[in-house]
Design goal:
Layout: E1 2-5, H1 7-15, H2 22-29, E2 34-38, H3 39-50, H4 60-69, E3 73-76, H5 80-88, H6 96-108, E4 111-113, H7 117-120, E5 126-127
Parallel strand pairs: 1-2, 1-4, 2-3, 4-5
Helix pairs in contact: 3-4, 5-6
């Protein structure tokens, strides 16, 4: 299964395993799953870290990118097809990072690994 890891799940994976559900851990450590993360998540971490909104995640985007490369996780870029999908999404909520993650998962045929209730309201496959 192709799993797209939401930003907060990646932060928990790299920093605080206690916040991961058992199901999330099972998906992350199942070697048959392909793990992906959107480059938009790195952008989100860079912004939030610069604003002081990630006090428990030292090292900011550099540490985040290192952790991705240190794990069996592939980075997915944002392309024009993903952006077109964003335009078609209903406005359940306005978070641009969540919206590009949702659009990426839909276009790429991925399941989002997320605890975010807003993402779970969209018609997109997700697990938690």
């Amino acid at each position: 299964m192709k799993i797209l890891i939401d930003t907060h799940v990646a932060l928990w994976l790299f920093n605080d395993y206690r916040n991961l559900s058992q199901i999330a851990s099972d998906y992350l450590y199942d070697e048959e799953n392909e793990l992906y993360i959107s480059i938009a998540s790195a952008w989100e971490v860079a912004i939030k870290h610069s604003l002081g909104k990630l006090p428990t995640f030292d090292g900011g985007v550099n540490r985040f990118l290192y952790a991705i490369h240190d794990n069996p996780i592939q980075i997915v870029g944002v392309n024009s097809e993903h952006v077109k999908k964003v335009e078609a999404l209903p406005y359940i909520h306005r978070d641009p990072f969540d919206r590009i993650i949702i659009a990426t998962a839909l276009y790429e045929g991925m399941v989002i690994l997320t605890a975010d209730e807003n993402i779970q309201k969209y018609d997109v496959p997700w697990v938690w």
